[in-house]
Amino acid sequence: MNTQQQETLQQLLQQYRDLPGGLLPLLHAVQDALGHIPADAIPAIARAMNQSQAEVHGVIGFYHDFRTSPPAAHSLRLCRAEACQSMGSEALAAQLRAQLGVDDHGHTADGQLELRPVYCLGACACAPALQLDGQLHARVTPEKLSALLASCSKEAKC
Ligand code: FES
């Protein structure tokens, strides 16, 4: 971590260390502030929350939304729950594997796009759905997915 990140972490540790059950909110706050939970922050987090490093790693590993590496430029969350599965999300996942060589929890070789499965985006009636850089896209077809991916490669931000 750089100096600014360390200062941010120290502020968050002060804010959450005495909060009962504060580990989860602290981890969310660290990720919100730094974009991820740096590996070298974990010892300080464990000390502040009176937990072992293994316990902190366990919590981070249990929740798929936590990340220990910086995010890619673009984040694609493809819904894999039942309604979206029945409307073609598995075909979209196969398209992503074929077109970009990226699978669940993976990222493209150039680090520009990461793929995360999600289990319902609240858009079941408009399945299949995905979220690209936080924006919901519904009734996604293979053609619409290709267009979204093309927009990512043309622009710095989708
Ligand atoms: S199942 Fe995909 S949005 Fe609900």
TrEMBL record:
The keyword Translocase does not apply. Keywords: 2Fe-2S, Iron, Iron-sulfur, Metal-binding. It holds the Pfam family 2Fe-2S_thioredx. InterPro entries: NADP_DH_HndA-like, NuoE-like, NuoE_N, Thioredoxin-like_sf. GO terms for molecular function: 2 iron, 2 sulfur cluster binding; metal ion binding; oxidoreductase activity. Its cofactor is [2Fe-2S] cluster. The keyword Iron-sulfur applies. Binds 1 [2Fe-2S] cluster. It comes from the Bacteria. [2Fe-2S] cluster binds at C79, C84, C120, C124. Belongs to the complex I 24 kDa subunit family. This is NAD-dependent formate dehydrogenase gamma subunit.
